[in-house]
Amino acid sequence: MTLWFLNGIKKGIKTEKNPDESMFKPDYPSVLExxxxxxxxxxAISNGTWIKEKCIFCGRCDLRPTGNQNIYNIHGKMPEIFKxxxxxxxxxxxxxxxxxxxxxxxxxxxYDANRFNIFEAETPRHADALVIMGVYTNGMEKIIExxxxxxxxPKIVIAMGACTLSGGIxxxxxxxxxxxxxxxxPPTPYSIISAILRYRGD
Length: 202
Known about the structure:
The relative contact order is 0.20. By secondary structure, the protein is α/β, with parallel strands linked by helices. The chain starts with a helix and ends with a helix. It has a domain at 72-200: Rossmann fold, CATH 3.40.50.12280. 23% of the residues lie in helices and 18% in strands. This is NADH:ubiquinone oxidoreductase.
């Protein structure tokens, strides 16, 4: 029997705590504070004020990271039917791959979104929420619409990352009404899980 297997049995799986209770949180991306006159290439600073939806967290301005991972907007309240289980279906409109990796990681043992009754759906027909990532692309517009129409009612749409919200530095944002908007380039697993839990009312 290999040593790594025995060590795993002895130590167990080290899963992160609830996002609000976790000891370690990265500085970027997080809520930025202060004022800045920096000429932001994405327009994330307007009249000295930070706009999280446009920020790619490049660190070139003089705004200070706080470590607060709550970089999201919630619109409305999650239907009660989703409180026992919530299935996400990711769809890539045109990403660099970073948002995909962060979303995938919330289902790993380290973050274990399943303990919060958050799961990944294999098809839109089995999904409660559509998670859209990436900039707007003509070729994906119809596909996103078809995926949305295939979902049963009630259905939720989550925008993930600066590219989806504002286009980032390479394109345009997706012009849709979102129930949850998660900023970041990319957002951390803490932000993703925290946004869903907050939307659920936890």
